[in-house]
Amino acid sequence: MRFSLLTVLSAGAAIGHALPRNLKAREVSTDELSQFKFWAQYAAASYCNENYASKPGHKITCSAGNCPQVEQADTSIVYDFSNTTSTDTAGYLALDNTNNAIVLAFRGSYSVRNWISDVEFFYTDPKLCDGCSAELGFWSSWTNVRDSISGVLNDTVAQHSDYDLVIVGHSLGAGVATLAAADLRGKGYPSAKLYAYASPRVANPALAKYITAQPNNYRFTHINDPVPKLPLIAMGYVHVSPEYYITSPNNATVSASDIKVLEGDINWNGNTGTGVPGLGDFPAHHWYFEETDGCKGPGLPFRV
Ligand SMILES: *[C@@H]1O[C@H](CO)[C@@H](O)[C@H](O)[C@H]1NC(C)=O
Ligand SMILES: *[C@@H]1O[C@H](CO)[C@@H](O)[C@H](O)[C@H]1NC(C)=O
Ligand SMILES: *[C@@H]1O[C@H](CO)[C@@H](O)[C@H](O)[C@H]1NC(C)=O
């Protein structure tokens, strides 16, 4: 099916009301909070040119100063990707010898504003489960780099079999990360962890249910961020559960009590219930524990 901006705006008007708060939220511990903040720095690092257009062995750095704990760790890029496919999927695969992790990070698109106003959403069958459909753009972004990443990943894991595989992304990169995690978990990496910050919806209910049933999903939203509200529920898309809904204001330090853990593929008590996606709501998109996309380079179209 084909959807355009007009569909978005007209259908969006129908969903802007929150339902009664009837779900009991689980508390987030301070240990979890520090994990959430730490992996957000890896997502932030995927926006820095020095990491996604890198050389093997490069230590991860963030020119915007927004990944200090990653910079303190013993890291090295194993493989990076950008500018090589029709979808311009960008990111890196890195080793973290301090935290015993292999990190696969996907960069968000520079043109997320364009994406919101111009994109058409199509379904494709990712062949992950019966009746499952994925959003075509995100799925192709992953499959365009899947073979090359899979080979390097297998070699890296063979050398570090005690390390965790952690897949991260922010914005459109979180959408790609979600589908990559779902796919890789079924292909030899069942306990891969997913930290998806500000992800759009990427799945129909059957695929969302399939991913939700896999372990180690951490999907974050922040107040009225417009990006996780798209593609619309009215188009048949839903989210992976649970949602870690960050309620603190833009630019504010996030504490554990600011995060609500909400279950369900549609939950009106979180980001979904904060109204129709608005272009004026972008400040919330940039702030996931820190200015996540602070490394977006100069000369790129939409620095919002
Ligand atoms: C990507 O390709 C375009 C066109 O060839 C070039 O102008 C741009 O600098 C490249 N970007 C990166 C990050 O390599
Ligand atoms: C990597 O390993 C997985 C799981 O064993 C396998 O399915 C996949 O084909 C391998 N990829 C490559 C490129 O060898
Ligand atoms: C948040 O920080 C950004 C970037 O430093 C700034 O442009 C914006 O005005 C700040 N917003 C608030 C609400 O303080």
Automatic annotation (TrEMBL):
<feature type="domain" description="Mono-/di-acylglycerol lipase N-terminal">
    <location>
        <begin position="6"/>
        <end position="76"/>
    </location>
</feature>
<dbReference type="Pfam" id="PF01764">
    <property type="entry name" value="Lipase_3"/>
</dbReference>
<feature type="domain" description="Fungal lipase-type">
    <location>
        <begin position="103"/>
        <end position="233"/>
    </location>
</feature>
<keyword id="KW-0378">Hydrolase</keyword>
<dbReference type="GO" id="GO:0017000">
    <property type="term" value="P:antibiotic biosynthetic process"/>
</dbReference>
<dbReference type="GO" id="GO:0016042">
    <property type="term" value="P:lipid catabolic process"/>
</dbReference>
<dbReference type="InterPro" id="IPR029058">
    <property type="entry name" value="AB_hydrolase_fold"/>
</dbReference>
<dbReference type="GO" id="GO:0016787">
    <property type="term" value="F:hydrolase activity"/>
</dbReference>
<protein>
    <submittedName>
        <fullName>Mono and diacylglycerol lipase</fullName>
    </submittedName>
</protein>
<dbReference type="Pfam" id="PF03893">
    <property type="entry name" value="Lipase3_N"/>
</dbReference>
<dbReference type="InterPro" id="IPR002921">
    <property type="entry name" value="Fungal_lipase-type"/>
</dbReference>
<dbReference type="InterPro" id="IPR051299">
    <property type="entry name" value="AB_hydrolase_lip/est"/>
</dbReference>
<feature type="signal peptide">
    <location>
        <begin position="1"/>
        <end position="18"/>
    </location>
</feature>
<dbReference type="InterPro" id="IPR005592">
    <property type="entry name" value="Mono/diacylglycerol_lipase_N"/>
</dbReference>
<keyword id="KW-0732">Signal</keyword>
<dbReference type="GO" id="GO:0072330">
    <property type="term" value="P:monocarboxylic acid biosynthetic process"/>
</dbReference>
